[in-house]
Every structure is written in structure tokens, then in C-alpha cells.
Amino acid sequence: MTHLPTFPQRIVCLTEETTETLYLLEEDWRIVGISGFTVRPPRARKEKPRVSAFTSAKIDRIVELQPDLVLGSLTCRPISRLNWCVPVSKYTCSITAVLRKRCA
């Protein structure tokens, strides 16, 4: 029997770029928490709870959201404090500009 890969259903985005990218891909239904700096798309601030800033995060709040995945940049300080309790993906560059061009 073949097992299909499981994709994250509950994602916390610690940067604005990851939130915007998931919205552009129409995968915003997976997002359970966002950065307090998120302004794009404007509806994200209305729809999703803010759980972090660039240099700080509400770790207990993030854990309460039971994410399958936390997305953030290498320079995002809260990332290192989350590695022990949730899967974390770090990236070094933003693909938002490329996606924005393709989705326009």
C-alpha cells in the first residue's frame, strides 16, 4: 500500500512574506497564526491571530495553535526557540516577488 505524503494543515507564518505567499497560492486556509508586521494582504490582519514580531514571539500562543509547520526566515529570532516543539522551516530569500509577478 502506498502512503500519500501528509501536507501541513496548520501553519504559523512568522514573516509577512510567507503569509503573502500562502495567500497568493490560495492556501490561506492553512494559516493559523501570522506576524504582527503582516500588512499584505490586508484581510490577513482581520482573519488571522498575530503571534509574533520579528524579534519576539508568543511561544506559548504558537504552541497552543498546534501548528504542523512554522515558517520564518533565518534571521527571525523566535525560530530557534520553537525548534524543540514544532517542525520549523527556515528560508534565506523571499519568493514573494516572483509569485506576485506570476499571479498578477
CATH C-level label: Alpha Beta
Overall, the morphology is globular
What is the string of helix and strand elements?
EHEHEHEHEH
CATH superfamily: Nitrogenase molybdenum iron protein domain
Mean pLDDT: 75
> What structural class is derived from the secondary structure elements?
alpha/beta
Low confidence ranges: 92-104
CATH architecture: 3-Layer(aba) Sandwich
Distance between the termini: 41 Å
CATH third-tier fold name? Rossmann fold
- What is the spatial order of strands in the main beta sheet? 3-2-1-4-5
Biggest beta-sheet profile:
5 strands, parallel
- Helical proportion? 25-40%
C-alpha Rg (nearest Å): 13 Å
Number of helices: 5
| Strand elements, count | 5
Explain the layout of strands and helices.
Layout: E1 11-13, H1 16-24, E2 31-35, H2 42-47, E3 50-52, H3 59-64, E4 69-73, H4 78-82, E5 88-91, H5 96-103
Parallel strand pairs: 1-2, 1-4, 2-3, 4-5
Annotation keywords:
single chain; 104 residues; alpha/beta; Rossmann fold; 5 strands; 33% helix; disordered C terminus
